[in-house]
Amino acid sequence: MNPQDPLTQALTHYTTLFTTRNPQSRHTITSASALLPSGTTRAGLYHPPHPLVFRSGHSCYLTSLDGDEYLDFVSEYTAGMFGHSHPEVITAIHSVTTQGFTLGGVTEKEGELARLLVSRFPSMDAIRFCNSGTEANMFALGVAGAYTGRKKIMVFKNGYHGGTLSFGPNNALNVPHEFIQGIYNDIEATKPLLTSDIAAILIEPMQAAAGMIPASPTFLQFLRDEATRLNIILIFDEVVTSRLWYGGLQEKYNIVPDMTTIGKHFGGGFSFGAFGGKGAIMEMFNPNSEAVNAAGEKKYCFHSGTWNNNLFSMTAGCVAARLMSREALERANELGEWLRETLQGVWEEKWPGLVVMRGVGSAVGMGFSGEKGEMVRELYYFYLLSEGVYMAYRGSFAVNLVHGREHVQRVAEVTRRFCEEVLVV
C-alpha cells in the first residue's frame, strides 16, 4: 500500500476520523477483549480498527455509545425487518412479560405461528421450531440423512448456512458431514458431482453472506430436476430470502424444494429458526406415527430444545409474520430495487466497472473489483459512517419495513458525494 496514494490517504483520514469520534466504542471493545476475544461474540461484526458499539435504536435509526445517530441500513444483517422497537412487537412482548414466560410447557402461540408460516411456503406441509438459522439447517440435514439413509451432502462454494455450515475460506467449525461442494450457478461443473448416494442438496436461492448473489432460476430448476431423478432431498435455505417474497423465492420462481429452512425476521427480533417440508419427511418427528424412511424403516427423530417454543419468539413471531404481508414486502422490494439501480448509475458515472450492484429486492449487495476494489469498499464504509449512514462492512444494505423513499435517497446522495469528493481515479 503506497502511503502517497490518494486512496490510501483518504482511507487513513476517514479511519482516523472514525476512531477520534468513537472513543467510548473503542474503550468498550478493548476492555471486553481481555475476556471476549475480539471484543464481540459475532465475528461478522468485527472490523479494524474496531466496530461501533450501540446503546439504543428507534425506527430505522441507531445511537452509538458516543452519542451519534446513524441511519440503519444494516437492519441486523437482514433479520431486522421491523426497525427498532416496533410498537406492535412491543405490545405483544409486554403481554408475555405480564403472563409469565418460562412456563416449561406447550402454549397456543406455538401452533398459531406454525399455521401462519406453513400457509405461506409452498414446500411446507409441517414445521418444527428451533433457535437460529444455523440450527434449522443442521436439523434439516439431520432428518434428510435419517430419511434417505445416506451420508453425503451437496453444498456450494461460498455458501453460508450458519456458523457450523460455512463454505467460504474460514470453516474450521463446520459439522463433520461428508460434504461435496458444487459451483453455484454452474450446471456443467455441478452435474457430474450429483450421484444417488447423496442425501440432500442444501442451497441458498441467493447467497447472502457471499455478496447477495442470486441463483439463476435455471440453476435452481436443474437442481430440482436432478434431486427428483436421484431421490435426493432438495433443501432451500431461505433464512434470508424469505424476506424477499411472501412465500420465499421458491414461490417467486415456482420451484418447490422438499424442505425449507427459515429464521431471522420471523422471530420478530428474538432468537428464532425453523425447518419444514413434505409431510412424509416431517412425520419422522411424530412419535405416534407409523411413517417410515425411504428404506421402509420406522425411524423416529427426537428433536427437542429448551427454547424452541419460548414465548417471546413465538409471540413476536406471530406479529412478525403478519407484519410481513405481501404488500409490505413488495414495498420494501421496490425501495431496494430503486437503491440498487440508482447506486449502479452513480458508480458507473464515476468509475465504470469498479462496482457491480447485486441482490434481489430489499437485499442490496455490492461487489468491488480490481486491485483497489477492497480499499474503495472499506473507504466507502467509513465515509458513510462519517455522514451518519450505517451499512454492513462487507458491502451490503438491507431495506426494512420502516424505511421510506427519503432514506434510500439519502444513501444515494451520500454515495454521489463520495464519488465526487473522495473517490479519486
Q: Helix/strand-derived class?
A: alpha/beta
User: What portion of the residues fall into strands of 2 or more residues?
Assistant: 15-25%
Assigned CATH superfamily of the largest domain: Type I PLP-dependent aspartate aminotransferase-like (Major domain)
Q: Helical residue percent?
A: 25-40%
Shape summary? globular
Write the CATH architecture name of the largest domain: 3-Layer(aba) Sandwich
How many structural domains? 2
Strand order of the largest sheet: 4-12-11-10-7-5-6
Q: Outline the low-pLDDT stretches.
A: none
What CATH first level of the largest domain would be assigned?
Answer: Alpha Beta
Count of discrete alpha- or pi-helical segments spanning 4 or more residues: 13
| CATH fold-level topology of the largest domain | Aspartate Aminotransferase, domain 2
Beginning-to-end CA distance, first to last residue = 16 Å
| Mean pLDDT value | 95
Q: What's the total count of β strands? A: 16
What is the helix/strand order? HHEEEHHEHEEHEEEHEHEEHHHEEHEEH
Largest sheet: 7 strands, mixed
Rg computed from alpha carbons, rounded to a whole number of angstroms: 22 Å
GO molecular function: pyridoxal phosphate binding; transaminase activity
Keywords: Pyridoxal phosphate, Transferase
Family: Belongs to the class-III pyridoxal-phosphate-dependent aminotransferase family.
InterPro entries: Aminotrans_3, PyrdxlP-dep_Trfase, PyrdxlP-dep_Trfase_major, PyrdxlP-dep_Trfase_small
